[in-house]
Amino acid sequence: VYHHQGQLDKAIDAMKKAISLLEKHYGLLHRDICPIYNDLGCVYLDKGTLPLARQVIEKSLEIAEKIYSPD
Questions:
Q1: What are phi and psi of 54, to 5 degrees?
Q2: What distance in Å separates the CA atoms of residue 64 and residue 70, rounded to the nearest whole number?
Q3: Which contacts qualify for 39-48: CB closer than 8 Å, 24 or more apart?
Q4: Model pTM?
Q5: How far apart, in Å, do the first and last CA atoms of the chain sit?
Q6: Helices (H) and strands (E) in the chain, counts
């Protein structure tokens, strides 16, 4: 909601809090964490912080690859 309202800093804070809570409860490799990292990357992209956007989107991909890898 914050993202769509243009309150990017609030959106970032809320997403970071959600990631932290999920990581504590489920561990880092959980499917619910991937989309939050991806959404966080989109917020950073809208904010114009491209290096952070890339970093968190790559984190989302890294987690997804570990979870869904056929190995």
A1: -65, -45
A2: 11
A3: 39/3, 39/15, 40/12, 40/15, 40/16, 42/3, 43/3, 43/8, 43/11, 43/12, 43/15, 44/12, 46/3, 46/8, 47/8, 47/12
A4: 0.88
A5: 37
A6: 3, 0
Contact call for residues 11 and 43 (beta carbons, < 8 A): yes
CB 2 within 8 A of CB 10: yes
pLDDT digits (tens), the chain, 71 positions: 899 899 999 999 999 999 999 999 999 899 899 999 999 999 999 999 999 999 999 999 999 999 888 76
Single-letter residue type at 39: D
Between CA 28 and CA 65 the distance in angstroms is: 13
